[in-house]
Amino acid sequence: MAVKDYIRQRFFPHIWCPGCGHGIVLNALLRAIDQLGMSKNEIVMVSGIGCSSRISGYVDFHTLHTLHGRALAFATGVKMSMPELNVIVPMGDGDALAIGGNHFIHAARRNIAMTAIIMNNRIYGMTGGQYSPLSGYGTRATTAPYLNIDHDFDIAEMAMAAGASFVARTTTYHVRQMADILKEAILHEGFSVVEILSQCPTYFGRKNKMGSAADMMEMFKKNTTPIGSEAKKENPDLIERGIFVQKDVPEYCSEYDKLIENAMKGQ
Questions:
Q1: What is the tens place of the pLDDT at every residue in 109-136?
Q2: Domain boundaries of the chain, sorted by first residue
Q3: How far apart are alpha carbons 179 and 181 in whole angstroms?
Q4: CATH number of the domain at 3-264, please?
Q5: Cβ-proximal residues to 64 (8 Å cutoff; 6+ apart), any chain
Q6: 8 A C-beta contact, residue 119 and residue 48
Q7: Thiamine pyrophosphate enzyme TPP-binding domain location, by residue (predicted)?
Q8: What is the pLDDT of residues 213-238, one digit of tens each?
Q9: In Å, how far from its chain's centre is CA 258?
């Protein structure tokens, strides 16, 4: 099956702004799925509301386009009712970590098998460029014209602390690494979190004078480094990318099936 066979071509051209990184994420995701040889009927994609959530409309899988911040809650219901399916949940800043933050930490804690893809463009792009939980201290947004004083979350650290059994980070510049990490995440039997640094030249880039989309991607190249590199020791401000956690932990659906079996036996 070719990558184009996974796309609902009737919905193209897409609505993302020129230079947006989300199309790169879509491309890498479809290549990962194609390389895994997965059938479209094996996959359910669940999204909320936002720029990133538009991905569910462009893929020819079983899809749910749900409420803002509630994608993981809907995805949990899908996985619990049909655990044999591969559930993929693309989210943005707010969808995952503002209104959706409580769902995120509890999905990680339960270790239910699904892949949470968090596209971190550090801004609310669809609703006008407001600052998000990932914008960071000292940045500008339409709702922070005199600088944002909120500190941002570290998605990887939060996911690990909440109990996610697979945690990784990459960028839209490192597209081959992205596809490889997504393959690992989809195959992992547990809650997988993949943070992808994604450029938003329209709002975050323009407000913070970061230049074009290509300039922002060049920053991803210069400001990130593989986990545990010598460069990180020399420059602690570099952002690490790669797989932080990949461990075997009892998966929620499997444990729930055991619970039912024991209850049926009267134990």
A1: 999 999 999 999 999 998 899 999 999 9
A2: 3-264
A3: 6
A4: 3.40.50.970
A5: 44, 45, 46, 47, 56, 74, 75, 78
A6: no
A7: 49-196
A8: 999 999 999 999 999 999 999 999 99
A9: 30
Tokens 């409580």 — which residue? Answer: 102
E strand spans, the chain:
43-47, 62-65, 86-91, 114-120, 166-171, 191-197, 224-226, 239-246
| Residue ranges in 111-154 assigned as alpha helix (H) | none
Give how far Cα 9 sits from Cα of 13, 43, 249, Å. Answer: 8, 18, 39
Short-list 172, 177, 25, 153, CA closest to 90: 25
Q: Quick one: tokens of 146?
A: 């005199």
Three-state DSSP at 197 gives strand
* Nearest to 127, CA basis, from 146, 143, 116: 143
